[in-house]
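Feature request, filed as a ticket because there's no other form

It would be nice if the structure record came with a short human-readable summary line next to the tokens. Right now we just get the raw output. Example of a typical job, pasted below so the devs can see what we mean:
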Amino acid sequence: MNPERIFDAFPAPSYRGNQEQALRDIRDAFAAGNDVVLVRAPTGSGKSLLARAVAGCARTVDDAEPSEASGAYYTTPQVSQLDDVAADDLLADLNVIRGKSNYSCILPNERNTPVNQAPCVRERGYDCSVKHRCPYFSDRAIASNREIAAMTLAYFMQTAGSEVFRKRDVVVVDEAHGLAEWAEMYATIQLGPRTVPFWDDLRVPEIDDVERAVRYAENLAQTCTRRKDDLLAQDSLSPAEVRERDRLQELIGELDWFVSDYRDPQSPTTWLVDQSPSNSSSGGQDDGDDEDPQGGPLTIKPMNPEKYLQHTVWDRGNKFALLSATILNKDAFCRQVGLTPDKVALVDVGHTFPVENRPLYDVAQGKMTYEHRGDTTPKIARTIVRLMQRHPDEKGLIHAHSYDIQERLADLLRDFGVGERIRVHDRDGRDAALEEWKASNDPDVFLSVKMEEALDLKGDLCRWQVLCKAPFLNTGDSRVAHRLEEGQWAWYYRTALRTVIQACGRVVRAPDDHGATYLADSSLLDLFERARTDMPDWFEEQVDRMSTPELPEFQPRAALSGSDGVTGTRGHGGTSTDDDSNGGRSRSRSRRSGRSSSSSSSSSPVADVWDTEG
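Raw output as currently delivered:
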């Protein structure tokens, strides 16, 4: 790697904001001998451009010895982020490759067939006459031979050990804040009717410890291998059989990894096993011949993904740049992903968006924990109506946190008579519903679930949003419960804060953009107090300026009529002179509330956040 090339590799014709200083700091961090540089860059920093500049510092093929790695990888966990890269003319030399299922076969009778189910994978010995023009193999060949290959983190991890995508000189990971969680998710093994093709034929015992899960995994891997070999012995497979064969191959790899890792005395990984109750539709039939109780679907989870990351990420490059707005604590992040903190540099990029353009407002109506949700949700629904009155001509986004909360809010808002301005989505149609809402010119309000990240709502696409629930992780999850039993509360609050900061960036995307964020769950105020030491300075400034807005009286008809219902509320995200003048009083009230809540729950922090529903 040659860090001195970073300015020449920057793809834009000029710098904006703090980009030039960021490049200088990144260059100096690598020049100082660091193998890994964390770049904490807030929304609007142009992280993709910085990423391209770092990738451009990689050793070239011409400069490398035959045994030396050259070129760079750009990877991101977000599919939408990769789409943005592919569409950006300034990043045209990032050669994008996606998984086979994203490409269609070009044979005349197979135009609607994804490449991973095409004749070349269905028929033994099939010689494709147009393989040289196959969109997947063409993109793969280009990406593997060019200086910078771009792909999702999932594809990047899946190609670990590939002869095509070998080790490179530089690896850049964009949106890297969730790297540990993504690794845990990818390494998690789900065994049930949706993931095991012959689940109904299996007899699954009750599994009460990891050792028994290992023995069951060994037996299941052998069964999968026999079934896969039977499929491979056939001359031709149907698309369904191809899917089964590929899934069996994946499952064998997952099970073998789990068994070998558990048996490795040097592995740092802690494994947890959850089992659902058995029923007649999953886990096979109990014929009474076996004395062992019948068990249900299994989830096998790794707690410490360092070894998995070593194989899938850290062994893939010489130098690494990890970029995100929300790597909140360097040492904690390094521990989670298996890096030594004193060998990692952190580069902070300053925020260039005026703080007054990204205001936070306290409209808390109570706690949204499962115990209190029934009382608080109707109050939040009424508040949303008042906010619709405050923003009559502007689109709004409601972060409902879960489908249960989304459904409750939607029903209440319809009962209040404002349903015609409300849009919702389900699990299957979320992307289509989002795009339809974004394309509309109507000031509709979108009730979303899990859209705190990777969403670009610039300008009039959205001017205000509501956080309905503090995004604490589900304490009913065995991984979360295990960490909290070990006292990892700082991690718990930091993870929730990270999601809040990500959400706040959805509606303000440029220095001249503006958007308001309203906090409806009082636990959010408590979160800010508990996690304050991990806040970036620029977000702490937002929190310190937080105020309580003066909202119009509850008049649902006014939320549809196009009348403000209150004067002086237009402009920067609905800010007003009245709001600013009340800011000091409101901040004091909010902070007192947060400290009081913290004090009352100091003996048992889970009392404030316990939520098994998510």
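Something like this underneath would help us a lot:
The first strand starts at residue 36 and ends at 40.
DSSP finds 22 helices and 16 strands in the chain.
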